[in-house]
């Protein structure tokens, strides 16, 4: 019976991966150019590729989402954080720019105007308020597309990041998790890595191996990839020799709200490491 159950579980994962492969091929074949005058239509690029004899799936670990304004604001009027956060005009301006799908340049300016008001004053990487479950709502400086997150909203996966205590029960202590939750089936793709604050700068997180990619279908979970080095993991992502030889990824936490309530914003940037990712900026909200 156990063998039969294992065979059914494995067969189920194969079907899921084949489905993702078909979806990815379909999306890649579509014309994904931004409509005229709307530069922020394109999606961000943090993706991890894994290959197999039977299937290919693209896993996006940090991507742009373009939700409606109400979703980007993500605060209820009875939330304790609502009054104080809403009163910050720079914050409200940034969220309005995201909702309006303004250009990358406009959003970059809005971020720079909000950044001096960072509640953590440049020490977000060691702040206890960085812990939690964060949903990606926008990203800047993206040059490549993320096929799965280009899907129409009803079938587009939700992109989450788990940090600190929120990540420990899912991927282990001292690790950070990037998760894609699919809306039409009980499937999640989980990419995790080690993380530690940089001693010389309290705003920077260093990302280090091992890198693990797992698929969770219903109550079952299977490991798809494990890489023991940055070079090996980047090779799986089809990076060139220069990218594989680059140092570890460093994420600067440029802004972190510390109410601890849903709707808190966090802004981070890849400042070193994989040259394909360096310069990307991500905006998350706490959920």
General description of the model:
The protein is of the alpha+beta class. 26% of the residues lie in helices and 31% in strands. It contains 8 helices and 11 strands. The longest helix has 28 residues. The radius of gyration is 19 Å and the shape is globular. The N terminus is likely disordered.
Key words describing this protein structure:
single chain, 287 residues, alpha+beta, 8-stranded antiparallel beta barrel, two-stranded antiparallel ribbon, 8 helices, 31% strand, globular, disordered N terminus
> What's the helical proportion of residues?
25-40%
Distance from N terminus to C terminus (CA atoms, Å) equals: 41 Å
Number of helical regions: 8
Radius of gyration from the alpha-carbon trace, in angstroms: 19 Å
Quaternary structure: single chain
**What is the averaged pLDDT score?**
77
The helix-and-strand class reads alpha+beta
The low-pLDDT segments are: 2-11, 22-77
Q: How many runs of DSSP E, i.e. beta strands?
A: 11
Shape: globular
Looking across the biggest beta sheet, what order are the strands in? Answer: 3-4-5-6-7-9-10-11
Main sheet overview: 8 strands, antiparallel, barrel
**Approximately what portion of the residues adopt beta-strand conformation?**
25-35%
Reading the helices and strands in chain order gives HEEHHHHEEHEEEEHHEEE
């Amino acid at each position: 019976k156990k063998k039969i159950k294992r065979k059914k579980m494995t067969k189920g994962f194969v079907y899921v991966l084949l489905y993702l492969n078909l979806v990815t091929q379909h999306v890649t074949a579509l014309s994904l150019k931004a409509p005229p005058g709307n530069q922020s239509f394109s999606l961000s690029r943090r993706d991890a590729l894994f290959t197999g004899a039977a299937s290919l799936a693209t896993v996006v670990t940090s991507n742009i989402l373009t939700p409606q304004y109400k979703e980007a604001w993500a605060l209820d009027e009875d939330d304790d954080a609502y009054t104080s956060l809403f009163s910050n005009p720079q914050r409200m301006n940034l969220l309005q720019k995201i909702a309006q799908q303004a250009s990358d340049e406009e959003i970059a300016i809005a971020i720079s105007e909000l950044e001096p008001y960072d509640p953590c004053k440049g020490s977000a990487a060691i702040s206890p308020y960085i812990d939690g479950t964060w949903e990606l709502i926008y990203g800047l400086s993206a040059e490549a597309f993320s096929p799965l997150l280009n899907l129409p909203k009803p079938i587009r996966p939700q992109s989450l990041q788990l940090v600190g205590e929120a990540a420990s029960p899912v991927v282990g202590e001292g690790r950070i998790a990037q998760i894609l939750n699919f809306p039409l089936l009980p499937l999640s793709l989980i990419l995790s890595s080690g993380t530690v604050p940089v001693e010389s700068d309290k705003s920077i997180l260093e990302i280090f191996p091992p890198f693990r990619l797992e698929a969770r279908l219903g109550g079952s979970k299977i490991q798809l990839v494990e890489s023991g080095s940055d070079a090996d993991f980047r090779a799986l992502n089809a990076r060139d020799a220069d990218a594989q030889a680059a140092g570890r990824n460093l994420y600067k936490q440029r802004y972190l709200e510390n109410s601890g309530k849903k709707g808190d914003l966090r802004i981070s940037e890849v400042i070193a490491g994989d040259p394909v990712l360096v310069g990307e900026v991500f905006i998350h909200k706490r959920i």
